[in-house]
Write a structure and sequence with these properties.
Layout lengths: L1 H28 L3 H6 L15 H23 L7 H15 L15 H25 L1
Helix pairs in contact: 1-3, 1-5, 4-5
Length: about 140
């Protein structure tokens, strides 16, 4: 139970880093990669939750927690749960592919916006490194 709580806190902290980083990118570059992070247009029920972006924020943090916990226990089966590289490869690669979800909505960024994809993927690499470092040293 203690480890589950630690992993959940790691997911929240890394989720804050990701959210903050993409917001900073939006402020300084105008890139709309941040919009995709909170966009739930393509997820039934969640897209109608409360005020603007509320459902997106809830989904973002829930996904951060679940993904950190799940990946930790999957990697544990291979004795890689403390490998920063494993988190980097899996989360960054998966996020690079998940960018294509933007094609399911009319909201930005455009699916062919390579700059937004680069910001999105780079921010998720930072998220991955944050998770990997915290798991290695705190979980």
């Amino acid at each position: 139970m203690k480890q589950l709580l630690k992993l959940s806190m790691i997911g929240i902290l890394a989720g804050i880093v990701l959210l903050g980083l993409l917001k900073i990118v939006e402020i300084f570059t105008g890139s709309q990669a941040y919009v995709l992070l909170l966009n739930t247009d393509y997820i039934p029920l969640i897209n109608d939750w409360g005020p603007e972006d509320f459902g997106g924020i809830v989904f973002h943090f829930a996904f951060c927690i679940v993904s950190v916990v799940a990946l930790f226990y999957v990697l544990k089966q291979f004795r890689l749960e403390r490998s920063i590289l494993a988190y980097l490869v899996i989360f960054t690669g998966g996020s690079a592919i998940l960018y294509t979800l933007t094609g399911l909505t009319e909201r930005p960024p455009a699916i062919m916006d390579i700059t937004a994809w680069t910001y999105w993927t780079t921010a998720h690499a930072v998220y991955s490194l944050t998770v990997g470092f915290l798991v290695k040293h705190r979980a």
